[in-house]
Amino acid sequence: MATRWMTLLALLCAWTTIATAAPVTDRLDIEHDWLRDIAYACEDGEDTGTLQLRLGQDPALIRYFEVPATVWEAFKAAESKGSFYSTRIRQRYERQYGKSREDVFDSPLPIQTTVNALCAFNEECEPIILQSIEKSHESIFVAAYAFTRTRMAAALVKAHQRGVRIEIKMDVNQADFIGAQRLLAYLRGEGIPVTLIHTAGEYSAMHNKFMVFDMRWVVTGSYNFTTTAQVSNWENLLWLDSPDMAEQYKQAWDAIVSDEVHDAAASASKPPAD
Q1: What is the pLDDT of residues 149-204, one digit of tens each?
Q2: Where are the alpha helices (DSSP H) in 136-232?
Q3: Residue ranges of domains in the chain, CATH in brackets
């Protein structure tokens, strides 16, 4: 028994050492027209790390994740840094533009609570949402990555007409599609406010898909509020009966705002100068 506990203690100490290891940062000091503040952070013993830089006069920091150390070494050795960045980095790795979500939203601590829950899959998802809209009496807060499903929109309008407070936040890029444009015009025409959320960065999105009903029920999952999700995709949805969970989701909904957009961000598309 003593041997087992010693082994577990050793593993815990090793894990703690790994978890708290500070990354080593390597900075690249170069004179360049449109690449600046270039650095690469990698934990000791790891073969990938995070590459960060700024473009032109844009003050926002861009981070590229899980960039191999070999790519960083090749970048440092490249005769044309701009060309290397454009062809070997810019479109190849996940990236974060500007502040991370943890910089702008102080996430509430996870809670443990007992909930009544229901799970649904594929074509089962929409009826759960429609039933939740129908039985709401006070408020519905919607966070939608995409929204084109007219049955849901009609149900929300009907709820609004009986006095339910309804507010919607949706990803701005998904609002460009014709179906979304028609649906949003319909909702706004009926007096339901819709806020389009701009998330800075070419790959970024307001990717939430959830609704909070009467500060008691929540629906959330992979399911977008679209016809494609209803009839074509593999999807899942959870319905939760929990005021505690509803409060946490409402806090998250309140925090969803558009990112600051810098005028200089257009410099990201500037062609290599060297």
Answers
A1: 999 999 999 999 999 999 999 999 999 999 999 999 999 999 999 999 999 877 78
A2: 150-161, 178-189, 227-231
A3: 18-98 (no CATH), 108-255 (3.30.870.10)
